[in-house]
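Input/output pair, single chain:
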Amino acid sequence: MHSYPFSLGASQRLHSIRIPAKAAMQVLTTLLVFSLCLFPNLATAASPHIYDAPQAGPPGSQTQTVGNGWDPNATLDIYFDSTDVGLVDTDNNGSFGMALKAPTIRQNGLTIQIPKDAVQGQHWITAVERITQLQAQVAFTVRVDWPQFHYGPDRTGFNPYESVLGPANVGNLTLNWTFATQSQNTYATSPVVVDGVIYIPFIHADGLYALNASTGALIWKYPVGMAGYAGPAVANGIVYVSSTDGNVYALNASTGALLWKSLVSTYEPSWPTVANGVVYVLSMDTNVYALDARTGAQLWKYPTGPCWTFIAPQAVANGVVYVDACDNDYHETVYALDAGTGTLVWKFTGAQYQTIDAAPVVANGIVYVGSEDYNLYALNATTGALIWQYPTQSWIFESPAVANGVVYLTSQDSNVYALNAATGALLWEHPGLSDGGEAPVVANGVLYIESYYTPNVYALDVGTGAILWTYSGLHGLVGPAVVNGMLYIGDVDGKLYAFGLPNQQMSEKFSPPERPDPARLTPKLEPTSKKIANHF
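Output:
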């Protein structure tokens, strides 16, 4: 039988003892387990990990990277794709930016600025130890969402992150796919796009549809009654949509499962607006409702006048809800309400027996609203005072788009106007393009408009109004969405249309880089990024 010497050192005389091999292995195993309990980084050093939060976002956004399982007191290079973006030091436990025993508690992680020119798709964050070359990677998806009507709760119609479609290539747009329901006499209203999924109600059809944004394939549908003319809003994994049955529905964005429904009136509510955990809707019963976004419980309501402006959604910005309606004497009225309490902050009163049909737009401290009295009004967002007004030659039915200090406006006079957002001065005018029935949108130097009677869709240069692209045969309804290199339009023919660049052009110019090999990444010897320390 084999045996192993085992010596015990002490101040007294040493004695040599002999332990059988099986017992020796048991002792060593016990010591190893005891050591791993005392020094948990020893168990994870061979399996390092990094985590990012959030895991997706638009170009120019930020994510925080943390990690564990590294060597203690080591220096790591952090890369976004192949670019060294910073150094971190691990602590005594081999972690950075997080507590080892509670990975959800994150501290002092490295903040990474996503490049503004990062193309849509999957990118990689890589961490590499400088001495041992231990390495780990985590994916980050560059993605832009269009979560509500006219882009966001402020209703500007401006996507500031679009980097694919622009003046140089929008003329190459081609029809990628269409989607239609089996119902007759349907209308496809304006879509929203979140996390690669399109959410769109089909009017007079069987409810709300969720489609793959790349292919148009059906993911799920939910029967919300007759969906009406109001589209959905998406926030925190929940889709909110109103119905002609008077309910606001909240659905799981991934599955379409009903989370709650809230009956706000016996009439159709408007487009939901979601901001800071609250859903706001204006109903045909002339009340503005605020609902808890998690439960549907009513938080407050505010009465307006008896106008049929229920289709137009409200805008929310800086803790104020802006509503287009009328007063009890049928004067066109814009209400500014405290978003938390529903208390009236101010109201702007216009002409009698005229209505403000379009959703207010809020940008840079100014509220822009169009009216049936042919004017576009610019109001101080804090006080409601009139700053300027611009007269057109007919009704203004839809919201303008506001981007980079310019207001883009369509009117029933068939003209497209570009106005200085601060002064209302005319910058350019393009006649004969739009009947003002749909809301224009702006992305990456291109203005997109639709005309109901022509019927055409146009892409215009934002600086000059020159036509860059035209597609014939669509009437449109409410307004398009431009996101991730795609143009989506719901049409009165009951179809959703998706336009994009040719596949070859997309793959050549707008594909993210391949997953980097950590062994081939080159560190900065003197990084300009701040090296972070860990304090627990």
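Residues 1-45, 527-536 have pLDDT under 50 and may be disordered. The domain at 181-301 is CATH 2.40.128.630 (Lipocalin).
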